[in-house]
Design a protein that fits this description.
mainly alpha; 116 residues
Length: 116
């Protein structure tokens, strides 16, 4: 414990610890399903475009606003995955940074979606 944390009230330190646990839980649940969504976004299924749009909405919401009706086009497993990735996004880290080469991947989707 550092001198600075020693001066904080114990209840505040407890709350910080609880929030860190929740952040880690969101990451543990979100990373595997992020990979699943990325794989599905590359598939030839009719759901792929909706998934790309969802992920692009997390990447740049002002340019890629996501229509919630698109979630209805996804099967239940992909819907749940999208919600877990949305929770992961709440951790304060850009979703594409969890993926090696994520910026390039999302930029490629951007260009693909602009062209369609």
């Amino acid at each position: 414990m550092t001198d600075r944390t020693a001066m904080l009230p114990e209840s505040f330190l407890f709350l910080l610890g609880q929030e860190e646990k929740r952040r880690q839980q969101r990451e543990d649940a979100g990373l595997p399903v992020l990979t699943m969504l990325i794989d599905a976004a590359h598939s030839g299924s009719g759901q792929a475009r909706h998934i790309r749009r969802f992920l692009l909405g997390l990447y740049n919401a002002s340019h890629w606003p996501f229509e919630l009706n698109r979630l209805r086009a996804l099967d239940t497993e992909l819907q749940q995955a999208a919600l877990q990735v949305l929770a992961l996004d709440w951790n304060g880290r850009e979703v594409h940074t969890y993926v090696p080469g994520g910026d390039e991947l999302f930029q490629a989707w951007w260009e693909w979606e602009v062209g369609t």
